[in-house]
Amino acid sequence: MRYPTRKAIAPCFASAPDTAFDIYLDTPTGGHGRKGMALLFVDSHSQFASYGQLDPPVVSDGKPRYNFDWTVGGLTGADLTR
After folding, report:
1. Any alpha helices (H) in 1-82, and if so which ranges?
2. Distance (Å, whole) CA 11 – CA 14
3. Which pTM was predicted?
């Protein structure tokens, strides 16, 4: 693990009614609004991260989606860039 303070292991799974747990950029799918989301990091701290602080989302089904699984950047990657 190269960046335990910047590698997310889970987002807050609060979501808007009738939406999946995936967080799509600039939509109300996240339960915390359009500006960002709460994340849990490898070092066990949590924080609200604005979308501007995160690596760009993965485009899936034509929509930019944040997916914090271990394959994104691998263990040496960092999800929080700023």
Report:
1. none
2. 9
3. 0.74
User: Which residue range forms the structural domain that includes residue 14?
Assistant: 8-66
**Measured distance CA(75)–CA(4) in Å, rounded:** 9
* Tens-place pLDDT, residues 17-61: 666 666 777 766 666 777 888 889 999 999 998 888 887 777 877
State the residue for tokens 């944040």: 66
Residue 13 lies in a domain: yes
Sign of CA dihedral 31, 50, 23, 70: negative
Q: Give the chain's domain count.
A: 1
**Cα 32 to Cα 8: distance, rounded to the nearest angstrom:** 17
Question: Would 25 be classed as within a structural domain?
Answer: yes
Identify the bridge partners of residue 63 per DSSP, sorted by sequence position. Answer: 60
